[in-house]
Design goal:
- The complex is a heterodimer of chains A (about 140) and B (about 1600).
- Chain A is an alpha/beta fold and about 140 residues long.
- Helices cover about 45% and strands about 20% of the residues of chain A.
- Chain A has a 5-stranded parallel sheet with strand order 2-1-3-4-5.
- In chain A, strand 1, helix 1 and strand 2 form a beta-alpha-beta unit.
- In chain A, helix 1 crosses helix 6.
- Chain A is globular and about 35 Å long.
- Helices cover about 45% and strands about 25% of the residues of chain B.
- In chain B, a hairpin with a 6-residue loop joins strand 16 and strand 17.
- Classes of the chains: A alpha/beta (about 140), B alpha+beta (about 1600).
- At the A-B interface, helix 1 of A face helix 46 and helix 47 of B.
Chain lengths: ~140, ~1600
C-alpha cells in the first residue's frame, strides 16, 4: 500500500466519480486518481500520456455515457499500441445489471473485470492486492 | 411545512414525557399530536394508527435495549423512529440505526432545537425511505408484470400448441406474475359447465370445486361471457356479487381476482382466472397488461388453430402424395427409380417386384446389371448398355430401348425401357418405365421368321410377285418374275406393267386397272412378252393396294407362268383331235352309247356306212338317236341278229359280260356282207359302251370258200377211196398214235406187207432206224399244224431192203388223221442221182419257203407249179400249165411280163421291193392292191439253158397298206405330230413284225439302223419301272381285257428319261385272236413336267387358300358377307363364337334384325352411306348387336360395299367385339365423372392445357377465380396466351417460361402471390406435363389457394417479429430503467458505505452528504419519468379531438417565449396545407414542445437557432416536419439510439436527460404514427412525423 498506485475513472456521472475518488483514497491515500466525465477526453489523455509514462494504471470505465459509450471507448482503445494497452487495466464499472453487458465486457480482451456500482473499499483493496501480486 | 403530525412517545419516565412535550411545544412541531405510552405493549396498540414519528426510550418496563427497536420497527414499518436514551452508548446507537431507527438522541442532549431538527430530519429521511420503498415496490410490480408478459410471449413464441401455452400460462402466472393461484377453464355450453384445463397454485379440492361448478348467474365467468370483457374484483370479501365464494377465498387468502376471456377466432372459449392475496391488486396498469397478455394468448390460439389447419392441409397434401404413391404402385407398367450416379434402384412399384420376383428389400440392393442377363441382344453387356443409356438420359434424352431382364428365377423377359430424368434437388434420379414385350418380341420373332419364310417363299416362289404403284410403275418384282419375263430386276423397276405386254394385253390390262381402282381383286390370264420376245402366258391374282380411305395406291399381282400348261393343253387338244382322226380313219364303224341306248358318239365310218346303206336319216342311227330303238326296229323287221346283238349289248350294261362279240350277216340287196359286232365297256366308264361293227365280208367269203373246198375234197376222197388201191403209190392214213388206219394195196409191192398186216401197226416200225428221229420230228411238226407236204425217209422192206420213200403228207386236225402218199422212189433216186442236189434245193426252196412260190417255164412263162401260198396270194386256182399272161392279164400293163421276159432273156435276177401289184379278183373287174416283195430268178436246165423263171413272192400288202395309211395320216397331221412328238407303230402280232414311222425313232432317241423290228427292242427302251406294267397292259389289250391306253417312261440310249403316252387298238381275226396292234406314242415329257408343276402350284395355291381360310376362320374379327338384302351369306366362325348362333343360324340372320333398337337409326344411316361409296371401306359407328342369349355386344367394324364388284356382289363386313372396351370406356367415363366430381369439389383450381396453350378443361373454381380476379370468362379452347398477354410483361414472361418448361417434360412447382388492388391471393401452383407414350401432349395444372395460410404465416411472422421486438423493447426498457434507477441507488449505497466507514474529513462528509442528496433527487426524477412514460404508454383512452395546428404552435410559442428570447431563436411554421388534425391534443402538444425545445437545446453555439415547422399531405397521410439548424446528430454512429430512453448524444449538455425524443416517439406511436429523422452534424436536423 505504500506504493503510489494510479487510477483513471471515466464516467459522466460526477457523483460516481466522487465516490470512486473517495473510496480509492480510503484504501490508498497516496493514489494518483484521474477522473474524466467525457470518455473522449480520457482517451486522448491516455494516448498521449501513456506513450511515455510507464506506470501501471487501473481504469474504471462506465458503460452508459452520452457521446462515446464505454464500448466506443474500448473500440478506440483496441487500436492503441500494445505498449500503452499493457499499462492500462480496465475494469468496467456500471450500474447496469444487464447480463449481456457483463458478458460483452468479459469477452473483451482489454477488460480485466466487471464491477457493479458502487465501487466498494473491499473491491479496490482486492484489485490492488491482485495488482501487487502481478507486480511482484 | 405543515407540522401537524402524529407523534408517539414511548417513555415510561413521566418527567421525560413532560420534558419532551415541553420541548415539542417550542419546536416547529407544536401543533403535532403527541401520544405518549409507557410500555411497548401500549405502544403496539397504536401500530395501525398513522403515526409519523415514534420517539422511543429503550428502557421500557416490558422491553429493554435494542430488542425494543427491532419490535417497534417491525410493528411500525412506516414510522420514523428516533431512539431516546439516557445512555451515551455508541454500540446501541449504531445497532439501532442499523435496525431502522432514524436517529439516536441522548436525553441530556435534547433541547427543542435539537428535537425539532431531529424530528424533521427523521421525517424527511423516513419520507424519503418510504418513497424509496414505494418505488422499489413499483419497480418489482413493473418487473413482475413485464416478466409475466415476457414469459407469456416467449411461451407463445416457443410453443406450437394450445395446451402448452395454457399450461405454461398458469405456471407463469404463479412464478413470474406473483399470483397466488391461477386456473384456466373452458366453457362447456352444452352442460353449462366449465372444463378445467390447467391450474397452478390451487388446492386439490378447489380444482374439483371449479371443475364441477355450473356457471353462476352472476359469477365472474358468466360476466365474462355476457359482457365479452374481463371481470375484476379487487376486494373479494367486500364484493356482494361473490358472496358464495367468500368463505373459500378467505380460506385461501384470495383477496383480489381477475377473470380474463380466452378467445379463439374472436369467440370466447374459456377464461383465465387469477387470484392474488393482495387487496386492490389489479390496478389499471395491471389490468391493461393482463388483457394484453390474454389477448396475446388468444391470438396465439388462433395462430395455432390456423397452424392446425395448415398442418391439416399439409396432411391432405401428403395424403394426395400417398395417393400418387398408390397410383405409382398400381401403375400397370413397371416403374423403377434409379440413382443416376450409381445406377442403384431406389424406388419401385409393385409391378417391378412382380416382374423381377424379388422382395422390396432385395430389390433395393440391385442395379440394372444385377437383374439382367450378362449380355443384351444387341451384343453389349448389360452393364455397358445400362451405363450408356443412363448417361444418355442424364444428358436430357429420353432413351427408349429394348432390354432383357432376368428375374430371380432366371427367366428372361423382354422389355421396352424408357428413361426419364427426374428433377430432384438432392440428386439426379432417373425414372425407368418397363413394358414387358416378351409376347411382342416373340410375335416379332415369329413374324420375322414368318417374314423370313415368306421372303424365302417370295424369292423361291414359283409364282412371280409384282407390285405397281398408282401410276402403274413397277415397284417390286421377285426373282421368279424376273425369270419368267427374262428381265433383271433393275430393268423392270420403274417400268410400267404395260411395257411388258402387246397391244391386246395392254387393252385388257387397262380395263382391269380401272376395276382395280374400285378395289376389286381378281384372277386374270394375261400374256406378256418376254425379253427374248417369247409369249409368256401367265395367270395373275391381282389385288389392289389401297391406302387410307380406300384410295388406290397400286396393285399386287401373283404371277404364275402357265405357258407350259397352255402348251400342254394345246397339245392335249391336238391329241384329242388326232385321236378322233384316228378313230375316224378306222374302218370299223364305232359308236358309243349310254345305258339308255342313246348314241353319244360315232366315227366317220359309222356315218359313212349309214349313208352308204341308205339310212333314211342319219338322226335315226347317228349321234343323238337311240341304238336300242334301231335294234328294235330291226327286230320288228325280223332280223334275228338284232335281238341277239341287243341282248349282247344289254348284257354288257348288266355287267354279265365284259365283252360281247358276234358275227352277223347283213346282206344288202346287191351284196353279201358279214359283220362282227364287238361290244365292250367304254374304258372305265361303265355307263357307256363302245359298239364296233367290222365288215368281215371278205374274210367270211374266204372262209366259206375254204369250207366249200373241204366238202369237195371229201367227195373227192370218197371217190378216190375206190381208186386208192389201184394206185402204185402207197396211199394211207395214220392216226395220232402213229398207227396205220387205212392203207392201199400198193403196200404189198412197196414194203412187202399186205395192207391187212399193216393196219393197226405203227408206221414207225417200218422206218429205217437212221431216219427214225427225223421221221418222228416231221410227224410231230405235221401234227402240230405245220405243213410239210413232202417228206422223204427210208423204210425197211419185208425182205430187209431199205426202200427210199417220198411222202406227201397232210394232217387233218379235224379227223385227227394224217393222209399220206408214199412213193417208192428207189428207182427215181437211182435215176435222178445226178440232179439230186438241185432237186433237193428246189424242193427245199419250194416246199419250205414261207413265201409264195411259183415256177414259170418257157418264154411265155407257163406256170409249172405254184404253191398254196401263191395261190392264196393271187386268189387263183389251177394255174399250172397256163401262162402268166393268161392267169394275170392285168399285170402285163403293169410291166411284169416285160420284167419276166427280161429275166428269161438275160438270166439276171430281179428283186422287187414293196412293189404294188394290182390284181383282179377272179370273176370281177375290180383290181385290188397287193404289195409284194419278190424275186424273179431264172433257172437253168441241164444244158444250162434258161428253162424258166422261179418266182419267190412275199405279200406285204397289209403292212404296206397300214404303213401307207399311217404315212398318209402322218403327212396330214404333220404339224400336229411334229409338235406333239407323236409316233405311230404297227405290230403284226402273228408275225411279230413291228413297224415304226420315222417319228417313233425320234421318240425313242435311236436311229433307224438300230431298230430290228422286234418287240423286244421296244421292251429294251422302256424304263425298268414300267416294263412289267406296260407288258401286262399290252397282254391285257391283246387278251381284250382292256384297251391299251397308258403312259410309261422310256430311257434313251443317252440315259435321259422321257414320258410316253401310248394308245393302241388291237385287231383280231375272226377267231378273236389278236393279230395286230396299231398304236401311237406321244412324248409327253414336257406336258408331264408342266403338269407336275401345275400340280405343285395347285398344291401351293391350296395351301395358300388354306392359309387365308385359316386366318379368316381363326381370326377374332367377325367377318361377314352380307347380301344386298341384308342377309348373311358368309359368317366367319368368330361370329358364331361371339354371338352364340350356330353357323346355320348366322346365315338366317338379317343384320338389321340383331341391331339394338336404339342403334337402328345409326345403322340405317350408315348403310345408306356405304351404298353411296362403293368399294370404300368405311368405319361403322359403334352399335350393339344382339347375341343369341338376348344380351347385346358392342361392335365396331369396317364395311365395304362390294355390291358392284363382280365376283363378290356383297357387302363385306369386318366387325370387332368391343364390348369390353366399351365397358372399359364406360368405366372410364364413370371414373372420369368421379374424377370430375373430385375435381369440382376440390379446393384447388385445376385446369389443363394442350400443346397450343389452349384450355382443354378447367374446374369451376378456376373459372370463378379468374372471373373474380381478372374479370375473365374463360371457355375451353381459349388460349391462355391471349390472357397472359394482358398481364404485365414480366408476369406474362414468367408464366410462359413456366408453361414451356413444363411442356419440356418437367413438373414445375412454385408459389405465387397476386396483389391486384385490394385483392390478395397466394397460390401454390404445380404444373405437370401430361405424358402420352413418351410425348408431352399437354399440361395439367393445379393451383391451391394458400392465401389464408400465407396470410396466417405472414401475420404470425409479423406478430412474432412484433412480439420479439416488443419483448426486446421491454427488456431494453427494463434494463434501462433498472440502470437509471440503479445508478442513483448505487451512488446512495456508495455514499452510505463511505459514510459508515468513518475516518472522514468534515468536508468530505459534507461532500458525501451533498452527493447523497443529489443521488436521491436523481432517483426521484427517474421514478417520475417512469411514471410519465407509463402514463403515456397506457393511457390511450384520452379522447381524440380536432387540433388546430396554428393555434397549438402559437400556444407553445407563448409558453416558452422566455427561452426563445434568451436563446435568440426564431420559429416559423406553415400549416397551409393541413391545419387541422384529429388527434389526442395533449400528446401533440408534448411532441411539439419536446421537438422545439430540443432544437433550441442542441443549437450550434454561434448560430441563433432557426426552426421551421411544416404540415402537408402525402399518400393519404399527414406529414409534419420539424427542421432546425442545430448541432445535428451523427446518425451513422448513433442512428439506432436516437429515440432510445435515456440516450444522450451531447456530452456537455447537462440539460439533456435522454427522455425527450423517447417521449416523442412513444407518443407518436401511441397515436398510430411514425417518426423518422434525417440529420447532419453541424448542419441541422429534420424530424418527420407521419400520421
Amino acid at each position: 500500500m505504500n506504493k503510489t498506485s494510479h487510477f483513471i475513472v471515466v464516467d459522466d456521472d460526477q457523483v460516481n466519480n466522487m465516490i470512486c475518488r473517495t473510496t480509492i483514497k480510503k484504501v490508498s491515500p497516496m493514489a494518483d486518481i484521474q477522473t474524466f466525465n467525457v470518455p473522449e477526453e480520457a482517451f486522448e489523455y491516455i494516448s498521449i500520456r501513456y506513450a511515455e509514462k510507464v506506470d501501471l494504471t487501473i481504469l474504471f470505465l462506465d458503460i452508459n455515457m452520452p457521446g462515446w459509450s464505454g464500448w466506443d471507448f474500448l473500440d478506440n482503445f483496441e487500436i492503441l499500441n500494445e505498449q500503452i494497452k499493457k499499462k492500462i487495466q480496465i475494469y468496467m464499472l456500471s450500474s447496469s445489471i444487464d447480463p449481456t453487458d457483463k458478458q460483452r465486457a468479459i469477452e473483451n480482451n482489454n477488460v480485466v473485470g466487471y464491477l457493479e456500482k458502487p465501487l466498494s473499499i473491499a473491491t479496490v483493496s482486492a484489485i490492488l492486492d491482485v495488482q501487487m501480486k502481478i507486480n511482484l | 411545512m405543515n407540522n401537524t403530525v402524529k407523534i408517539l412517545l414511548v417513555e415510561d419516565n413521566p418527567i421525560d414525557v413532560m420534558l419532551i412535550r415541553e420541548l415539542l411545544k417550542k419546536s416547529s412541531y407544536s401543533n403535532s399530536i403527541l401520544i405518549d405510552v409507557k410500555s411497548l405493549h401500549d405502544a403496539l396498540f397504536y401500530a395501525k394508527e398513522d403515526i409519523l414519528v415514534l420517539l422511543l426510550d429503550l428502557g421500557l418496563p416490558d422491553s429493554n435495549g435494542i430488542d425494543t427497536v427491532r419490535l417497534i420497527r417491525e410493528n411500525f414499518p412506516d414510522c420514523a423512529i428516533i431512539v431516546l436514551t439516557g445512555l451515551e452508548d455508541d454500540t446501541i446507537a449504531a445497532e439501532s440505526l442499523r435496525l431502522g431507527a432514524q436517529n439516536y438522541l441522548t436525553k441530556n442532549q435534547i433541547d427543542s432545537k435539537v428535537l425539532d431538527k431531529t424530528i424533521r430530519f427523521a421525517i424527511e429521511r423516513h419520507v424519503f425511505v418510504q418513497k424509496l420503498k414505494k418505488a422499489d415496490k413499483e419497480l418489482i410490480h413493473a418487473n413482475r408484470l413485464y416478466s409475466f408478459i415476457s414469459q407469456i410471449n416467449q411461451t407463445i413464441v416457443h410453443s406450437h400448441d394450445e395446451q402448452t401455452v395454457l399450461k405454461r400460462a398458469c405456471k407463469i402466472a404463479i412464478e413470474y406474475g406473483m399470483f397466488k393461484s391461477a386456473w384456466i377453464g373452458m366453457f362447456d355450453h352444452i352442460n353449462k359447465k366449465i372444463n378445467l384445463i390447467e391450474e397452478s397454485g390451487m388446492l386439490h379440492q378447489d380444482i374439483a370445486l371449479f371443475a364441477n361448478a355450473p356457471f353462476e348467474n352472476k359469477g365472474p365467468q358468466e360476466h365474462v361471457l355476457r359482457f365479452d370483457s374481463y371481470y375484476v374484483c379487487n376486494n373479494i370479501q367486500a364484493d356482494p356479487e361473490l358472496s358464495s365464494w367468500k368463505p373459500v377465498a378467505s380460506n385461501r387468502n384470495w383477496n383480489s381476482c381477475m377473470v380474463l376471456p380466452i378467445r379463439k377466432s374472436g369467440k370466447i372459449i374459456g377464461t383465465i382466472n387469477l387470484y392474488s392475496d393482495e387487496i386492490d391488486f389489479f390496478n389499471k396498469k395491471e389490468i391493461t397488461l393482463l388483457v394484453e397478455a390474454t389477448g396475446d394468448i388468444s391470438f396465439a390460439l388462433d395462430i395455432f388453430e390456423k397452424d392446425k389447419q395448415r398442418i391439416h392441409t399439409e396432411q391432405r397434401l401428403k395424403q394426395s402424395e400417398l395417393r400418387y404413391r398408390e397410383f405409382f404402385d398400381t401403375a400397370p407398367e413397371v416403374i423403377i427409380v434409379m440413382d443416376a450416379e450409381t445406377g442403384a434402384f431406389i424406388d419401385y412399384n409393385n409391378n417391378a417386384l412382380k416382374l423381377f420376383k424379388l422382395s422390396g428389400v432385395q430389390f433395393l440392393k440391385k442395379s440394372p446389371p444385377d437383374v439382367s442377363p450378362p449380355m443384351q441382344p444387341d451384343g453389349k453387356t448389360s452393364a455397358e448398355k445400362s451405363t450408356e443409356m443412363i448417361l444418355a438420359a442424364t444428358h436430357g434424352e429420353n432413351p427408349i430401348f429394348d432390354w432383357v431382364v432376368r428375374d430371380s428365377e432366371g427367366k428372361d423377359i423382354y422389355c421396352e425401357v424408357r428413361l426419364t430424368v427426374l428433377t430432384n434437388p438432392d440428386r439426379k434420379l432417373i425414372r425407368c418405365n418397363l413394358f414387358e414385350i416378351t409376347e411382342r418380341k416373340q410375335a416379332q420373332e415369329k413374324l420375322m421368321q414368318s417374314e423370313f419364310r415368306y421372303r424365302q417363299i417370295v424369292e423361291t416362289a414359283n409364282e412371280g410377285i409384282w407390285t405397281i404403284d398408282e401410276n402403274n410403275k413397277t415397284t417390286f418384282v421377285n426373282k421368279k418374275l424376273c425369270e419368267i419375263l427374262e428381265y433383271s430386276e433393275e430393268e423392270m423397276i420403274g417400268k410400267e406393267n404395260f411395257d411388258f405386254m402387246d397391244k391386246e394385253g395392254i387393252k385388257i390390262a387397262k380395263e382391269k386397272i380401272t376395276r382395280r381402282k374400285k378395289g376389286v381383286s381378281e384372277n386374270e390370264e394375261i400374256r406378256f412378252i418376254s425379253k427374248s420376245r417369247k409369249d409368256v402366258w401367265t395367270k395373275l391374282l391381282v389385288s389392289p393396294i389401297l391406302g387410307i380411305e380406300g384410295k388406290y395406291k397400286g396393285a399386287l399381282a401373283m404371277v404364275t407362268d402357265i405357258t407350259e400348261k397352255r402348251k400342254a393343253e394345246l397339245k392335249l387338244q391336238e391329241s384329242e383331235t388326232f385321236n378322233k382322226g384316228i378313230l375316224s380313219s378306222l374302218s370299223a364303224h364305232i359308236a358309243v352309247i349310254d345305258e339308255n341306248g342313246t348314241i353319244i358318239a360315232v366315227n366317220k365310218a359309222w356315218d359313212d356306212f349309214a349313208k352308204a346303206n341308205g339310212a333314211t336319216s342319219l338322226e335315226r342311227v347317228s349321234v343323238g338317236s337311240n341304238y336300242f330303238e334301231v335294234c328294235k326296229r330291226a327286230i320288228e323287221k325280223g332280223e334275228l341278229y338284232a335281238a341277239q346283238s341287243l341282248a349282247g349289248i344289254q348284257s354288257i350294261f348288266k355287267k354279265e359280260k365284259q365283252y360281247f362279240e358276234m358275227e352277223y350277216p347283213c346282206h344288202s340287196p346287191d351284196e353279201q356282207r358279214w359283220f362282227t359286232l364287238r361290244v365292250k365297256n367304254f374304258g372305265s366308264d361303265i355307263q357307256k359302251v363302245v359298239i364296233a361293227h367290222q365288215n368281215i365280208t371278205e374274210r367270211k367269203i374266204a372262209e366259206n370258200n375254204l369250207s366249200n373246198t373241204s366238202v369237195e375234197l371229201q367227195k373227192t376222197l370218197t371217190d378216190l377211196n375206190k381208186i386208192l388201191d389201184s394206185s402204185i403209190d402207197v396211199i394211207c392214213t395214220i392216226n395220232a398214235n402213229g398207227e396205220f388206219v387205212k392203207i392201199s394195196a400198193a403196200s404189198q409191192k412197196v414194203w412187202g406187207y399186205p395192207p391187212g398186216e399193216l393196219i393197226g401197226s405203227k408206221f414207225m416200225n417200218l422206218v429205217y432206224h437212221e431216219d427214225a428221229d427225223i421221221t418222228i420230228k416231221a410227224a410231230e411238226t405235221i401234227i402240230s399244224g405245220t405243213q410239210i407236204p413232202i417228206f422223204e425217209n427210208r423204210y425197211v422192206h419185208k425182205s430187209g431192203r431199205v426202200v427210199p420213200i417220198l411222202w406227201s403228207l397232210n394232217w387233218d386236225e379235224k379227223l385227227k388223221l394224217m393222209f399220206c402218199i408214199a412213193k417208192d422212189i428207189t428207182e427215181k433216186k437211182r435215176l435222178e442221182k445226178t440232179v439230186e442236189n438241185e432237186r433237193d434245193r428246189f424242193s427245199e426252196m419250194f416246199l419250205r419257203a414261207p413265201a409264195s412260190m411259183a415256177m414259170l417255164k418257157g418264154p411265155n412263162h407257163i406256170f409249172q407249179m405254184a404253191n398254196d401260198l401263191y395261190l392264196n396270194l393271187t386268189d387263183r386256182k389251177n394255174i399250172v400249165g397256163q401262162s402268166v399272161r393268161d392267169v394275170f392279164p392285168e399285170v402285163e400293163s403293169q410291166g411284169f411280163i416285160d420284167l419276166l421276159n427280161h429275166v428269161y432273156k438275160t438270166g439276171e435276177s430281179y428283186i422287187g421291193k414293196e412293189v404294188l401289184v394290182k390284181l383282179k379278183k377272179p370273176g370281177t373287174e375290180e383290181l385290188s392292191d397287193v404289195y409284194l416283195n419278190f424275186v424273179y430268178q431264172a433257172y437253168h436246165n441241164r444244158q444250162n439253158e434258161i428253162e424258166g423263171i422261179f418266182a419267190f413272192i412275199i405279200d406285204i400288202t397289209e403292212q404296206q397298206k397300214a404303213k401307207e395309211n399311217l404315212l398318209a395320216t402322218s403327212e396330214r397331221l404333220l404339224l400336229a405330230t411334229t409338235s406333239a412328238k407323236m409316233g405311230i407303230w404297227d405290230w403284226d402280232i402273228a408275225n411279230d413284225i413291228m413297224t415304226w414311222d420315222n417319228r417313233m425313232y425320234e421318240l425313242y432317241g435311236i436311229g433307224k439302223q438300230h431298230f430290228t423290228g422286234a418287240v423286244n427292242v421296244w421292251q429294251n427302251g422302256v424304263h425298268p419301272d414300267d416294263i412289267e406294267r406296260a407288258g401286262k397292259e399290252i397282254n391285257d389289250a391283246i387278251s381284250g381285257i382292256r384297251d391299251f391306253d397308258t403312259e410309261f417312261k422310256i430311257i434313251w440310249p443317252d440315259k435321259s428319261v422321257h414320258f410316253i403316252e401310248a394308245h393302241a387298238i388291237v385287231s383280231r381275226d375272226e377267231a378273236g385272236v389278236a393279230v395286230r396292234m396299231i398304236g401311237i406314242n406321244i412324248d409327253i415329257t414336257e406336258r408331264k413336267t408342266a403338269e407336275e408343276k401345275v400340280i405343285r402350284l395347285n398344291e401351293e395355291v391350296t395351301k395358300s387358300e388354306k392359309f387365308f381360310k385359316g386366318v379368316l376362320e381363326n381370326s377374332d374379327d367377325m367377318i361377314t358377307i352380307i347380301s344386298p338384302t341384308g342377309k348373311t351369306i358368309y359368317a366367319s366362325p368368330a361370329v358364331s363364337k361371339k354371338f352364340g348362333y350356330t353357323n346355320e343360324e348366322c346365315l338366317q340372320i338379317n343384320i338389321a334384325d340383331i341391331v339394338h333398337p336404339d342403334d337402328a337409326l345409326i345403322m340405317q344411316e350408315f348403310v345408306m352411306r356405304i351404298m353411296l361409296h362403293p368399294g370404300v371401306p368405311m368405319e361403322c359407328p359403334l352399335i350393339r348387336n344382339r347375341k343369341k342369349d338376348g344380351s347385346y355386344v358392342w361392335v365396331e367394324g369396317t364395311l365395304t360395299n362390294f355390291l358392284e364388284t363382280e365376283g363378290i356382289n356383297a357387302i363385306v363386313a369386318n366387325f370387332r367385339d368391343i364390348t369390353d372396351r366399351k365397358k372399359a370406356d364406360e368405366l372410364l367415363q364413370q371414373s372420369q365423372s368421379n374424377l370430375k366430381a373430385v375435381i369440382e369439389n376440390t379446393d384447388a383450381s385445376i385446369y389443363s392445357l394442350d400443346l397450343n396453350y389452349r384450355y382443354i378443361t378447367f374446374n369451376k373454381l378456376l373459372h370463378e377465380t379468374l372471373k373474380q380476379i381478372y374479370h375473365l370468362d374463360i371457355k375451353p379452347g381459349d388460349n391462355v396466351y391471349s390472357f397472359l398477354d394482358k398481364l404485365n410483361p414480366s408476369e406474362s414472361k414468367e408464366w410462359k417460361e413456366v408453361y414451356s418448361k413444363a411442356l419440356g417434360g418437367e413438373t414445375v412447382k412454385f408459389e405465387k402471390e397476386f396483389h391486384i388492388g385490394d385483392f390478395y391471393n397466394c397460390s401454390s401452383f404445380s404444373i405437370h406435363p401430361i405424358w402420352e407414350m413418351d410425348e408431352v401432349i399437354g399440361l395439367s395444372c393445379f393451383a391451391y389457394d394458400i392465401s389464408k395460410q400465407k396470410q396466417g404465416e405472414l401475420q404470425k411472422e409479423k406478430m412474432t417479429a412484433d412480439i420479439v421486438q416488443r419483448n426486446k423493447n421491454l427488456e431494453q426498457f427494463s434494463y434501462i430503467v433498472s440502470h437509471n434507477l440503479r445508478a442513483p441507488i448505487a451512488n446512495i449505497i456508495g455514499f452510505s458505505d463511505l459514510l459508515k466507514s468513518g475516518e472522514l474529513a468534515q468536508e468530505t462528509v459534507a461532500e458525501l452528504n451533498e452527493g447523497l442528496s443529489t443521488s436521491a433527487k436523481k432517483l426521484d426524477e427517474v421514478i417520475k419519468d417512469l411514471n410519465h412514460i407509463l402514463h403515456i404508454k397506457r393511457n390511450v383512452s384520452e379522447e381524440k379531438e380536432i387540433v388546430n395546428l396554428s393555434q397549438l404552435a402559437t400556444d407553445i410559442y407563448i409558453s416558452i417565449e422566455t427561452l426563445i428570447a434568451k436563446e435568440d431563436a426564431t420559429i416559423v411554421w406553415d400549416f397551409t396545407e393541413v391545419n387541422e388534425i384529429l388527434i389526442i391534443k395533449s400528446y401533440l402538444y408534448s411532441i411539439f414542445t419536446n421537438l422545439i425545445t430540443n432544437s433550441i437545446k442542441y443549437r450550434q453555439p454561434n448560430i441563433p437557432p432557426a426552426i421551421k415547422i411544416k404540415s402537408f399531405k402525402f399518400d393519404n397521410k399527414i406529414i409534419l416536419t420539424f427542421t432546425d439548424n442545430g448541432m445535428g446528430i451523427d446518425l451513422e454512429k448513433k442512428g439506432d439510439q436516437v429515440f432510445g430512453l435515456y440516450k444522450r448524444f451531447h456530452t456537455n449538455r447537462a440539460e439533456g436527460k435522454g427522455m425527450g425524443l423517447f417521449m416523442v416517439k412513444t407518443q407518436v406511436e401511441t397515436i398510430g404514427g411514425t417518426i423518422s429523422i434525417t440529420s447532419e452534424v453541424n448542419k441541422g436536423t429534420e424530424f418527420k412525423i407521419e400520421f
